[in-house]
Amino acid sequence: MPNKSSVTSAVVLQALRWLRRTPESFLAGHDAAPKAEEALPDPGPSRILRFDTGALYAALEAERSDRGLTWKQLAGELPGFTDSMLTNLSTAPLIGFPRVMMLTQWLRRPAASFVRGQAR
User: Fold this and answer.
1) Using CA of residue 69, residue 73, residue 78, residue 80, what is the dihedral sign?
2) Tens digit of pLDDT for each residue in 93-117?
3) Contacts of 64 (CB under 8 A, 6+ apart)
4) How many whole angstroms separate alpha carbon 1 and alpha carbon 50?
5) Is residue 50 within a helix (H) or strand (E), and if so which, with residue range?
6) Spatial distance between the Cα atoms of 120 and 100, rounded to a whole number of angstroms
């Protein structure tokens, strides 16, 4: 992984669950104790954690619209993203890590608010 710039977020979520850490706890400058809303949900023993890309897309769409931005303008605010990468979240089942953290930080929402348990 040293040469990779992105990892499948599902793998990262399982590691974070095992470590009992929040995604935000690894952000630079995030020295505060984790907030309750940052805690990852417990999906139970037969389920795994996944980012709900449809919910992430819906939140981006709502915030983009509220700010009066086009998808291209929004992508311009997010280094490494294109407008099509953002709009594809409406149908994409997966998103890479740490990219997903850029989106949740732009939305000013905890990553856990977009995490759901899913059958294996």
Assistant:
1) positive
2) 888 888 999 999 999 999 999 999 8
3) 70, 71, 74
4) 20
5) strand 47-51
6) 21
Helix, coil or strand: residue 61: helix
Per-residue tokens: 64: 């983009």
Q: How far apart are CA 43 and CA 7, in angstroms?
A: 21
**Count of Cβ atoms closer than 10 Å to residue 65 Cβ:** 9
118 DSSP β-pair partners: 48
Residue 112 structure tokens: 């856990």
Alpha-carbon distance values, 116 to 30, 34, 56, 60 (Å): 23, 19, 12, 18
Cα 81 to Cα 17, 33, 47, 96, 97, distances in angstroms: 27, 30, 30, 12, 13
Distance (Å, rounded) from C-alpha 105 to C-alpha 25?
Answer: 13
Would you say 85 and 78 are in contact if contact means Cβ atoms under 8 Å apart? no
DSSP H or E run through 114: none
- What is the per-residue pLDDT across 43-62, written as a single tens digit (0 to 9) for each? 888 888 999 999 999 999 99
